[in-house]
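Deviation from plan, reported transparently: adenosine-5'-triphosphate complex.
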Amino acid sequence: MLAAPALDRSHVGVPTPLHPALEVRNLTRVWGSGDAAQVAVDGVDLAVWPGETLAIVGPSGSGKSTLGALLAGIDRPTAGSVVAGAQRIDRLSDDQLARWRARNVGIVFQDFHLLPTLTASENVQLALKLSGQRRGRRGAAAEVLASVGLAEKTDRLPSQLSGGEQQRVGIARALAVRPKLLVADEPTGSLDTKSGEAAFGLLLGVAHGAGSAVVFITHDLDLAASADRVVHMVDGRIASIEVTA
Ligand SMILES: Nc1ncnc2c1ncn2[C@@H]1O[C@H](COP(=O)(O)OP(=O)(O)OP(=O)(O)O)[C@@H](O)[C@H]1O
Ligand SMILES: [Mg+2]
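Because the crystal trials were delayed, the predicted structure below was used instead.
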């Protein structure tokens, strides 16, 4: 097993360019309680670095989605810490957490989660609005939609787009805010191989352009091999971390 880059805390208080985009320690998430309690994520230590691409793989039920939701700030840990910059994310109020998420995290879901009554452009503009961007949202939405090949389709509703196109809107929405961290849970899972690969290639291209760290969960080992590191989950724990060539 190859360890994640060692974290040197000696620099605390001294400016340094090398902070993780996000770091979790002893991260634990228990579903249910008493006899029914189930530890979905069990004491995970992980740092995600700016600009890196990290794949999470493992059997069904091994805690990948639960970990992804904790990293994205959609869910809260039962124990352990989540640190972004100097901020303890796990200690924020619900409102503060939502604000942090809107400004810092892009999330891509397997089933897209687009708002059905909003056009492609409006879906992206809403994310920009929630992130606090006051001006130029329409233009920014047009630009990021063009970067995923949807310049001609910005005014379509999700129902007027193919699955692959909807996923590209989801990618544009997640990346429009230039998030520090992008979390994608089986981003190609609903698409055929070709559309999935195309969507994923766009995702990585736009994310790298924005300097975002990318964490993606997948069952596709070929896709995982394109990441800088591959985290293998078993029973809620990190069994190994592989650094790809
Ligand atoms: N909302 C929930 N309530 C109770 N238990 C849950 C909940 N979500 C997940 N679990 C349990 O936590 C464990 C981890 O689930 P998780 O969804 O993280 O797995 P996964 O690795 O993403 O699996 P898959 O590959 O099937 O998506 C499973 O045993 C699951 O049953
Ligand atoms: Mg899952």
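The chain has one domain: 22-243. We consider this an acceptable substitute for the interim report.
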